[in-house]
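Severity: low
Component: inverse-folding endpoint
Summary: output formatting inconsistent between runs
Steps to reproduce: submit the following structure tokens with default settings.
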């Protein structure tokens, strides 16, 4: 059957035109502005408005007969701060991060002549009060949990609960086995609660209440002002003087960057307290803590944790890691990743090179990382999604005659994740169409099987990696960064990056569909690219048909011409 070399009709989904109205994000779109939300005057209102339901339930728990409150929280210090603020000063309470059997239930010392000396534990001392317990010691010593559970059910402490209690032949005095009304608030993360459920599947069936404390708060005007109140009370309590609005705005920006969200702030008393104490070291004139003091503290902390990052940058400067930042190249693109090192307190972004080379085949994308087991399951899944999307585009063909090798160049450790999906698609289609990709382009984004660009993690670290290329002098001309549109709300970029965005040295585009990436990457509309690939495939089919009509001797003679 002869091959039709006319333009093949495209599937219906390809008729949509590329969005030509894409504009780069402005600096104001790449970071929150907390300065406008802060109050000019100190607010003496209760900062517990950050957690109205949690604080109300704590107050109800004190009044109700239930002996146990399961308190799901990521940060122990945040939980204790909220509990202390939600209960009156007169109410007896004690927070215990580390404890053992003797701490809770006391100790029995056996002396001669059957004399017994009993040292009370905290459960006795805080009768009609509350113990706030971190769950970790109970997970390390499950028998301690079952002793605590027995107390919560019976409200009594038998002799065997105390240390050395199993050695006592007899009973404790009556005044030491009376009913106790000590309440327990058990603070645990979600993962710790899962571990506790494996130790005791019925742990929550002892008349307990449950509440959870989000580690992040929405950055509404009222919440920002409530957090401002908390910080002002904190600096007063710690004897740190006062803090300016600009310093608070920078502090909140840092907390938002830790959350990686423009509309959320991490509530961590430890992070806040430690940063303010560190900033006070630079406040040599004993004036108000300023934004400059906080910036100095952040800079020192960042430099103290950047050795691995500096090794990565040194490899780029010395050209030990090869990346191309100018011109155009077929089948090559710059991806963005986040480096996480075991035992290392921080993570950082890094630029890496993805290359693709095509060959005669059956449409398979050969993922070298997966073949040599240097990629995880999520990475393997993302590559198959890219392959499936391309197969869907070319369903009008009986067989797709090309395949492609994809390599993460100079990658020597295991990687995982799907954030390179869009970059892989661009590199592969560049090979198939023999169309070069701009090398001043940096791409991150996941894909679904319909070509939609999906959100990824670590977007701020990845963009900051491009900023460091400017700092190192490796880039001087403007560059383009493609990110998922869904990640725009996650942008909390540093001052150096924002300055480059303002000067149009870094141009960030948020895209919703992979088709929007092709004009920016290859200066070619998606439909035109597909036509180019179709022309090439038609040519290959025609050449194959001509070869099939040649005899064996003719083909052999052609081979040696």
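Observed output (run 2 of 3):
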């Amino acid at each position: 059957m002869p091959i039709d070399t006319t333009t093949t009709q495209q599937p219906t989904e390809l008729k949509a035109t590329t969005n030509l109205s894409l504009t780069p994000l402005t600096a104001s779109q790449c970071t929150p502005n907390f300065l406008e939300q802060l109050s000019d005057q100190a607010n003496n209102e209760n900062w517990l408005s950050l957690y109205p339901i949690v604080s109300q339930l704590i107050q109800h728990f004190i009044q109700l007969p239930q002996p146990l409150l399961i308190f799901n929280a990521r940060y122990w210090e945040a939980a204790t701060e909220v509990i202390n603020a939600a209960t009156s000063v007169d109410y007896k309470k004690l927070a215990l991060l580390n404890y053992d059997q003797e701490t809770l239930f006391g100790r029995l010392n056996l002396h001669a002549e059957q004399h017994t000396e009993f040292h009370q534990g905290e459960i006795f001392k805080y009768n009609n009060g509350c113990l706030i317990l971190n769950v970790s010691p109970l997970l390390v010593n499950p028998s301690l949990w079952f002793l605590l559970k027995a107390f919560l059910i019976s409200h009594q402490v038998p002799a065997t609960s105390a240390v050395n209690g199993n050695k006592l032949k007899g009973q404790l005095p009556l005044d030491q086995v009376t009913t106790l009304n000590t309440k327990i608030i058990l603070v645990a993360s979600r993962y710790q609660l899962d571990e506790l459920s494996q130790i005791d599947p019925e742990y929550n069936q002892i008349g307990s209440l449950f509440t959870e404390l989000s580690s992040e708060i929405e950055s509404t005007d009222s919440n920002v002002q409530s957090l401002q109140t908390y910080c002002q009370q904190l600096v007063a309590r710690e004897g740190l003087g006062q803090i300016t609005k600009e310093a608070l705005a920078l502090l909140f920006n840092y907390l938002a960057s830790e959350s990686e969200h423009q509309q959320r702030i991490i509530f961590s008393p430890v992070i806040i307290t430690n940063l303010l104490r560190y900033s006070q070291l630079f406040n040599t004139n004993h004036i108000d803590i300023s934004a400059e003091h906080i910036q100095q503290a952040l800079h020192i902390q960042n430099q103290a944790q950047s050795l691995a990052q500096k090794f990565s940058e040194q490899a780029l400067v010395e050209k030990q890691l090869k990346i191309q930042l100018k011109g155009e190249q077929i089948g090559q693109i710059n991806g963005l990743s986040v480096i996480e090192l075991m035992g290392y307190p921080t993570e950082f972004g890094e630029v890496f090179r993805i290359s693709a080379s095509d060959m005669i085949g059956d449409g398979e994308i050969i993922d070298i990382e997966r073949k040599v087991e240097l990629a995880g399951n999520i990475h393997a899944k993302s590559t198959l999604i890219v392959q499936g999307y391309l197969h869907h585009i070319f369903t009008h063909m009986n067989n797709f005659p090309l395949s492609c090798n994809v390599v993460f160049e100079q990658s020597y450790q295991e990687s995982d994740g799907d954030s390179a999906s869009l970059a892989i698609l661009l590199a592969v289609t560049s090979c198939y169409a023999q169309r070069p990709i701009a090398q001043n382009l940096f791409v991150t984004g996941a894909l679904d099987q319909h070509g939609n660009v999906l959100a990824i993690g670590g977007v701020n670290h990845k963009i900051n990696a491009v900023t460091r290329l400017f700092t190192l002098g490796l880039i001087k001309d403007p560059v383009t960064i493609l990110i998922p549109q869904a990640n725009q709300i996650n942008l909390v970029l540093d001052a150096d990056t924002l300055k480059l965005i303002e000067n149009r040295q870094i141009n960030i585009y948020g895209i919703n569909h992979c088709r929007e990436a092709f004009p920016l990457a290859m200066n070619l509309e998606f439909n035109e690219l597909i036509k180019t690939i179709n022309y090439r495939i038609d040519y290959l089919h025609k050449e194959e048909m001509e070869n099939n009509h040649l005899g064996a001797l003719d083909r052999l003679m052609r081979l040696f011409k």
